[in-house]
Structures are given as structure tokens and as C-alpha cells.
Amino acid sequence: MSNKGTDHLEIIDEKDEFTLEKTSWKYGSLVEPSIVYTFVLNEGAAVNKKVYLHKGIFKAEVPYQLVDWRDGKGLSKIDSLKLKEQLLKSYEKIKSSFENQQGQQFVKLVEKGMFNLAQGAYLKTVEFENLKENKQNFINKQKRELESFSFNKLDISGDGKLVSLRRTDGYNNGEGFLWRKYKKKWTRNRSYR
Fold it and tell me: By the 8 A CB rule, do 97 and 105 touch?
């Protein structure tokens, strides 16, 4: 569906009527389907035609709007050293809140991302709140150390609108940046040594 609520649909049907229904997940429950648009083929309009085209417009009502990376700021013209420095500061705040058992601060720093994931997973509001609370409790329960940031590279992707730091050390090569330190070291195939 486009942002204007229109799209091309290919329908293979032998009927003289086409009905488009809507349904959705709202707060984790499936909403009863309702008719949004109906098209009745004019009698004789499609006689001896393999394809019959009809355009119709309806407004889609969606339960939420995900923030799309394509709406983001272009980063390719920003000095990569300054960008990496800013990114490291952000990662340091996240790491510090995790290591210093500040679960509420950690969740505050990553909440927008958690919210997008929760929406994509159709979590109920209470389930999202539980997710945040569980993350806070996990962080606050016990002191845990994260790996150092010494092995990293700046990765700009998504048509120059997404930025991240990727690990460049051994078995973590190309992985996300925040890793908990394990009591035993992992080998490349993820077994203990």
C-alpha cells in the first residue's frame, strides 16, 4: 500500500463482484473484517476480455504508522569521523546504563526501537510495558559487563540513511556492537573453549 492509500492489485477471479475487506490486529487481537470497497463488474463489460482494468480509491486506516528509515536524514555527506564519534557517545551511554544497572535509563535510550519492534510483533500495550519492565529488571538484577568498543567500523547502509557500528574482531566480525562478556570465550563456531 502506498502512503496515499492506493495500490495496484491483481485479482484472478471468475466472479462479477470484487470485495476488498479490511481487518487488523489491534492491541493483540484480530478485528472483525469489514468491507472497505466493492466493485461490481458491469454486465458485458468484460465479455471476451482476458484482462479488465478498473481503478478505485479508498483510504486505508492503519492502527499505527511505523517510522521508516527512508524518512531519515542522509548521512553520506557528514564527515565519517565526526559521525563515528557521535555514534560512539550514544553507544557509550547505552553501555554505561547497562553496566551500571540503570535499567530505566537503558530502556529510555532504546525505547523507540523497542516500540517499533513491539508494533511489528502486534504486542498489546500491556505486553510492551511488560517487555520494558522485564528488560529493566534484568539489567537492575545483576551487574554485567559488555565487551569493549575497541574493534569497530562505521557502517552506513539503507541508501545512506542508517548508521551503525559493526564489530571487526574475530568471531564477532560484522555483528552488532553491544555484546555481553561471557565467562568463557566463544570460538568462531560458537562453542566454548
Answer: yes
> Can you read off the three cell numbers belonging to residue 150?
575497541
How many CA atoms are closer than 13 Å to the CA of 186, on its beta-carbon side? Answer: 13
What DSSP assignment string belongs to the chain? --TTS---------SSEEEEEE--EETTEEPPPEEEEEEEPPTTTTTT-S------------S--PPPGGGS---TTS-HHHHHHHHHHHHHHHHHHHHTT-HHHHHHHHHHHHHHHHHHTT--HHHHHHHHHHHHHHHHHS--PBPPS-SEEEEEETTTTEEEEEE-SGGGTTS-S--BPPSS-B-TTS-B-
Encode pLDDT of 76-113 as tens digits: 888 988 998 998 999 999 999 999 999 999 999 999 88
pTM (2 d.p.): 0.60
